[in-house]
Amino acid sequence: MEALHTLSLHQALDLLEQGAISALELTQAHLERIAAVDGRIKAYLSVGAEQALTQARSADKERAQGRAGLLCGAPLGLKDLFCTTDLPTTCGSRMLEHFIAPYNATVVDKLRKAGAVILGKQAMDEFAMGSTSEHCAFQIPENPWKAGRICGGSSGGSAAAVAADECLAALGTDTGGSIRQPASLCGVVGLKPTYGRVSRYGAVAFASSLDQVGPITKNVADCAIMLEAIAGFDQFDATSVRKPVPRYRDVLGKDLKGMTVGVPKEYFDKGLDIEVEQAVHNAIAALENAGARTVEVSLPHTEYCVAVYYLIAPAEASSNLARFDGIRYGYSDKDAGDLLEQYFRTRAGGFGEEVKRRILIGTYALSAGYYDAYYKKASQVRTLIREDFTRVFSECDLIASPVCPGPAKKIGALHDDPLSMYLADILTISANLAGIPAMSVPCGFTGDGLPIGLHLQAAHFNEEALLQAGQALESQLGINSLKPVL
Ligand code: GLN
How far is the CA of 396 from the centre of ligand 1 (A)? Predict the structure, then answer.
């Protein structure tokens, strides 16, 4: 048998079901893999080896007793912003360096109830603000396909860990692209569900009207399994929707006859890397081969997306991050003379540069006198952006485009240039502004061997169309068995 860590989630679950492997062996193999390669990848901020082995033993027991859940015995990783009672939840920030949450995020409980084994917590941009994972206070994860390259962000550690076979799959969050963009740069699958599809309870908030939790996996079938495990209403998240969860696996293997794929002309604008453009056109042709019809569509408000997002997201972040004041939990500067000074010193010392920049922009956009000109105006334009999508989805099932304007950059290239980093989010943030589901699926490589992703977007709650087309693409292109050499 091939080394156990190279299995995909659905392959591993099949072998567990057949009794050909045990959860304990599988977990040990992943812990060994982490020990062997994480010095180079730097994906994990914490690894809970003992807990993972204990969870694996109980998974084996559950299966033997015929009580196996959907993910029974599958070793997974978590972006380090999901609250867990048995591992730290740092959010990649000094502010929460030693924080242990008093409760589990709903999605963590759901994974555990489905029998999953949690290997550890993965590196990310501080409080999920960034597109490179360089804004992590502790370490910078690297792209498994090429040393010295970013793995994207903010769920960079999770995408890198999946690509490097350091877990079978992972959970990330996506506020403006943080699942899809690192998935694309690391050559794995990443899906941002519809706003409201998955509970956000216990996922530390960045921008509450945009944040959504979703899977990062080695292939589309695995993505369907993970989504099925985490989706659904949660009484602890008022934005989660009471809507039955489909059996997402049922759409796999279907061709695309009768499906219409829209190709927005605004997404193939100047600034798009030529190799990315070619790979994406090639992928769109592959969707046609699988039976889909393609049409050119227009999303005329695309040019405002970056500006709208970079007002709304920082505004909401400035409000969400007001809670980190050093009083009840997290980093606290105790040398201060009085309470006010303690607030100032705690926030000055606990937050990194990018987080402070967002808090400043957001506070400004919300302040009296500027609220109407910035936050309110941005919210109005957001409605126009959403209406663009409603119109396009009245004539097509999917929208296809690149995920990122170019492949993974060198570490450091964007670090001192926040504006360029923000501009590179242009293709992913509109899905969050509109609340629609979107997915990145590997669709090729540059001449340098760096992965390229195809971006698929669908109407609200039509995750099934994404999975169906994503898997059709996978079988047309046949590139998803390729692995980075480590
Ligand atoms: N790159 C975007 C930002 O910096 C998106 C981050 C995210 O989705 N969490 O805000």
Answer: 27
With a pLDDT cut of 70, the percent of the chain lying above it is 100
CA 434 centroid distance within chain = 17
Pocket test for ligand 1, best of 133, 178, 429 (most atoms within 8 A of CB): 178
Domain 4-252 fold:
Amidase signature (AS) enzymes (3.90.1300)
β-strands 117-122, 189-192: how paired?
unpaired
Catalytic residues: 79, 154, 178
Q: What is the pLDDT of residue 1?
A: 58
Q: Tens digit of pLDDT for each residue in 180-197?
A: 999 999 999 999 999 999
Location of structure tokens 């405002």: 304
CB 190 within 8 A of CB 200: no
Domain boundaries, the chain: 4-252
Work out which ligand 1 atom sits closest to the CA atom of 178.
8
pLDDT for 128 = 98
What distance lies between CA 36 and its chain's CA centroid? 25
Quick: pLDDT tens for 189-222: 999 999 999 999 999 999 999 999 999 999 999 9
Q: What is the pLDDT of residues 253-308, one digit of tens each?
A: 999 999 999 999 999 988 899 999 999 999 999 999 999 999 999 999 999 999 99
Distance 209 CA to ligand 1 centre (A): 13
Q: Give me ligand 1 centre to Cα 168, in Å.
A: 24
> What predicted TM-score, i.e. pTM, was given to this entire model?
0.98
